[in-house]
Design goal:
The protein is of the alpha/beta class. It is 32% helix and 21% strand. The chain is built from 11 helices and 12 strands. The strands form 2 sheets. The chain has an 8-stranded mixed beta sheet, sandwiched between helices. A 4-stranded antiparallel beta sheet has the order 2-1-4-5, covered by helices on one side.
């Protein structure tokens, strides 16, 4: 298990989420889906940790477990030392002030029947005692903070572009000045030209308010731009976690190497050197024995099939789960 600094803002320890298949008469019960398995990491104030990996590796499930939008099977999620998983519903509701989420689809996450001013004001209504006039003033301030014109406040979500809708989602998340924002693929549904604007907005807000970001993404260019540290997930496990520069300049885990190498580049010569992952990811309900990556790893040897490699410190601030790295 990874060592932890004295008081990280968020500390996730041994987080596990297994989905049991439903019991059906006369049909043998299927093995549970091991979506997230013994995941540990921490995030400090004003830090961005990105979770990357193929679809289905468990990164979004991890993020939703941190928010308790999904109840984990086991583990701990400590926010400033308080285990969120031990809180009852009223106490958890109070904690939600400190934890906000930005969703992938900015349109689906905004109620189309509400004016956007009401959408952004919702957390203020639910969690503060501000008067109507104070709320309106705060909404105007939030609009300005996320780069939207305050006079658009009486419009409806469909009157905004995708990028503007994501800005509305960010304004709503910012309303209570959270300590941690979980960003679940927040720019993957946006045009490339708009992605940079939204990513820069998030980093500006982080600088100004000291917000920590748990950033889930599959676009490695975006991850490289926004992250302080990156955790690479494969089949429910973290296989490498380190600083952004370490990960992109000196990746150690074979999976990370291939993941980085598979990014398309405009240079045809470099393109020829790309390495691609062979085959599909194994089923999370029947993960391979030993190292879960051994069925696709070009370096796999006999021990990889038998022994699970532990996540261990290989170099300064560089943790890897591989027998040979
Ligand atoms: Fe590959 Fe073996 Fe390392 Fe797993 S432990 S990544 S199979 S070399």
């Amino acid at each position: 298990m990874m060592p932890v600094s004295t008081t990280p803002l968020l500390q996730v320890i041994g987080l596990t989420k297994h989905y049991e298949s439903p019991r059906r008469w006369l049909i043998p019960q299927q093995a549970p889906v091991l979506a997230v398995d013994d995941v540990s990491f921490q995030i400090d104030t004003a830090e961005t940790l990105s979770l990357v990996g193929e679809s289905g590796c468990g990164k979004t499930t991890t993020a939703k477990c941190v928010m308790r939008l999904i109840e984990p099977t086991s583990g701990s999620v400590l926010l400033q030392g308080v285990d969120l998983l031990s809180l009852d519903a009223p106490a958890m509701r109070q904690k939600r002030r400190d934890l906000q989420i930005i969703f992938q689809d900015p349109y689906a996450s905004l109620n189309p029947r509400l004016k956007v001013s009401d959408i952004v004001a919702e957390p203020l209504i639910n969690f503060t005692t501000l008067s109507r006039a104070e709320r309106e003033e705060q909404v105007q301030w939030l609009f300005a903070k996320v780069g939207l014109r305050p006079e658009w406040a009486s419009r409806y979500p469909h009157e905004f572009s995708g990028g503007q809708r994501q800005r509305l989602g960010i304004a709503r998340a910012l309303a209570l000045k959270p300590k941690l924002m979980v960003c679940d693929e927040p720019v993957s549904a946006l045009d490339v030209s708009v992605q940079a604007q939204v990513v820069n907005l998030l980093t500006d807000l982080q600088d100004e308010f000291g917000i920590a970001l748990l950033f889930v993404a599959h676009d490695l260019a975006v991850v490289r731009h926004i992250s302080h540290r990156v955790a690479v997930m494969y089949l429910g496990h973290i296989v490498e976690i380190t600083t952004r520069d370490n990960l992109f300049d000196k990746p150690l885990h074979p999976y990370t190497e291939i993941l980085l190498s598979s990014v398309p580049v405009p240079n045809p010569r470099q393109q020829a050197n790309r390495r691609l992952l062979e085959g599909d990811p194994p089923s999370p309900s029947a993960p391979p024995s030993g190292c879960r990556f051994h069925t696709r790893c070009p370096l796999a040897q006999a021990i990889c099939k038998e022994q699970k490699p532990e996540l261990g410190l290989r170099q300064s601030a560089h943790w890897v789960a591989c027998h040979f790295r």
